[in-house]
UniProtKB/TrEMBL annotation:
Keyword Flavoprotein (UniProt): yes
Domain of life: Bacteria
Cofactor: FAD
Name of the molecule in the record: Cation diffusion facilitator CzcD-associated flavoprotein CzcO
Alphabetical UniProt keywords: FAD, Flavoprotein, Monooxygenase, NADP, Oxidoreductase
One GO MF term: flavin adenine dinucleotide binding
Family: Belongs to the FAD-binding monooxygenase family.
Pfam families, per the entry: FMO-like, NAD_binding_8
Amino acid sequence: MDTSPDPDAVEDLDVLVIGAGISGIGAARYLKRAHPRRTFAVLEARGAIGGTWDLFRFPGIRSDSDLHTFGYEFKPWLDEHAIADGDAILRYVRETAAENGIDGRIRFHHRVLTAAWSSATARWRVEVERTDTGERTALTCNWLFCAGGYYRYDEGYTPHFEGRERFAGPVVHPQHWPEDLDTTGRRVLVIGSGATAVTLVPALARTAAHVTMLQRTPSYIMPVPSKDGFANLALKVLGQERGYRLARRKNIAQQLAIWRFCRRFPRAARRLIRAITVKQLPAGYPVDEHFNPPYSPWDQRLCVVPDGDLFRSIGSGAASVVTDRITTFTERGVLLLSGRELEADVIVTATGLNVQAFGGVELSVDGEPVRLPDTVTYKGMMLSGVPNLAYAVGYTNSSWTLKIGLLCEHFCRLLAVMDAGGHDTCVPVVGDPAMPTRPFLDFGAGYVRRVVDRLPRQGDRAPWSTSTDYHADVELLRRLPVRDDGLRMSASTAASSAVDAPR
């Protein structure tokens, strides 16, 4: 009898999690706890745990949400700083992986290239490239859980700048910050006005000769305390578990109340934000020129600055803001539309991200390529017509991880329902072909608008709409039944054959 291994055999898993960042580690922990007998692995294209928090190394990197809501529901955030720096968040994610035995399930330098679904076998065949060796392998799984976020890790977004090659100094994108770049005593020009720019400017201003933030359009910027006094007191008085739960509830309610106020009363919100900004800056500062966006609050994400550090840098003279457009780069800096030249020794293009759905994995179902714009999201975690695929995309108007936790819980509930019914296949099906749809990310940010036509759509009603309301998602994903009219469960031919086979 020939007992040699089958050269065509591939490893088969129950669940394959793609991405070892904050979402993937969370998904693996929920899965391991709720379904300890299921086999799973976490594939990570890079060589370390942490995702965004390991990738970005620019000065001052920090969260733009409080860690009592950005952190996992099951692991209290104990640092006194609610707005935390990147190193603290990275330690937290890695601690979570180690404490829950997830680190042993991660396969580094594994990039998923393609995933092909077979209805006959109820399996995804996944083609993987080893990023360290170039070797290609394959494996199969019943479920794919895509937890790689929504932007490209290998490439940030930089628009075309006329004459860029003329500039004599370094031009750096924050996503690829050089370890040996020293800006001490140098003039730094930061192009951009989003979360990355407002983080970089005060951090660089501590040692640079001067930092200028050049923006085409202003952003709404709000000062927040870096330490949450209520949360720190609750942790001290009530203990880690109860204190964390209370602080988390308070901050969830606070986030939602601010967002609802801004959306319901945009003029009042604009006036309030402007008044706060005026108080943060020196008397007579041209607030309306540099901090009064043409759009309403929360049409784009509100930027936060802990303890008003950006405003303090401006007030001290260490940093300044210029609102204008670039005509061309020059040997010494950039020439603006106004005719003014901004001189610099280093230019930083904090110009955003390149959005990429599902890490760029090419999906197909029974030999037919999946065209994402033809799909509709289901419960903000699956795609119409695509079986056994879940994804993790968090909130844009609140802490990202708040939604990730609910999605992971619901995914585990879904697996349990399938087990109880003897099903191995699950696919969302839109019952009303005439249902109106709108963009998947209904958000005004430039990085979204650039790719909106390449992303899935969402419907105008639950469960086909992608909710941005935590309490509504608690009801939908945690309390309501898993099954509804939009979800089809079945047993594959392979499963039926296994049941019918003689024993």
